[in-house]
Amino acid sequence: MFLTAPSPDQLSDRQVHSPIDLSKAIADLKLELNAVVLAHYYQDPDLQDIADYIGDSLGLSQAAADCKADVIVFLGVHFMAETAKILNPNKLVLLPDLDAGCSLADSCPPDRFALFKAAHPDHLVISYINCSAAIKGMSDIICTSANAVAIVNQIPKDQPIIFAPDRNLGRYVSEQTGRDMLLWDGACIVHEIFSERKLVELKLIYPQADIIAHPECEANVLRHADYIGSTTGLLKYVQKSDRQEFIVVTESGVIHQMQKTNPFKKFIPAPPTSNCACNECPYMRLNTLEKVYLAMKNRSPEIILDEQIRQAALKPMQRMLEMSK
Length: 325
Ligand code: 13P
Ligand code: SF4
Hints:
Elements: H1 22-33, E1 35-40, H2 45-48, E2 53-55, H3 57-65, E3 71-75, H4 78-87, E4 92-94, H5 103-106, H6 110-118, E5 124-128, H7 133-137, E6 141-143, H8 148-153, E7 161-164, H9 167-177, E8 182-183, H10 196-205, E9 210-213, H11 219-222, E10 227-228, H12 231-240, E11 245-249, H13 255-261, E12 266-269, H14 289-298, H15 307-323
Parallel strand pairs: 1-2, 1-3, 3-4, 5-6, 5-7, 7-8, 9-10, 9-11, 11-12
Helix pairs in contact: 1-14, 3-4, 4-15
């Protein structure tokens, strides 16, 4: 990808000196900084293509925990980069756009959650990784969509559980484990927007297609799914399946890797309720190749965390990593 050249007086440290091959410039900066680029499947395809590792939230946490580089460039949203920093306090963790937040993480403000937790002192707190470091610090164990069921299954049956912040994942885990958990009432704007009516209509057009869905979706959508799993789970499923067509009910960025690894299979993104591109996460898509280049060149914006909050958040993260081996 090439940028058009600005006039010399337009150039500043915040601007790209061009013409420039951004992918090549990023590759050079990787070597110069001893950096690793970690990307989530919901990133734009051109960003996935420059990553050293692409994964779901669990895979990305494990990659961050094992990271030997000096710099982590995180292509995802804020809570993900923050998680990398929790695990790597002495590394520089760059997030190309600090505004890349998450509606689900925002739906659980720490002051309100502290009151909720205080009202249920006998409950163990299991939090989905899509939350702030402050919420992680108030939790006993972190989970992701890939390991939530397995983690809840490891908790003694008589132990009451608070599950935060995603009510949809919480309800799905409750159904899978038979555990009656107290759910925080949060949700993801992307996964809530899928239309059950349009999904059923799409299935009539593609009767041979398997419907595959992320557990952050609502129950009325999940009940049509042939397979439910994390983004990595969905990818593995399409790779193993004999089917040739799949209706994909999650952020559409994941289709890039599905198509790359299965060039002859057909992937149909599930439609949102309105005629918008709402199956693209507006936060994830804030990162661009230009911003990645600038972040690496300027060593900024970086994730900075209060040390007390980091240490509190580290314990439940380590518990998750231990319980996921
Ligand atoms: P996973 O990465 O666990 O599949 O979750 C998807 C998601 O919504 C990340 O924000
Ligand atoms: Fe958050 Fe949903 Fe975007 Fe994932 S897809 S980052 S849960 S808003």
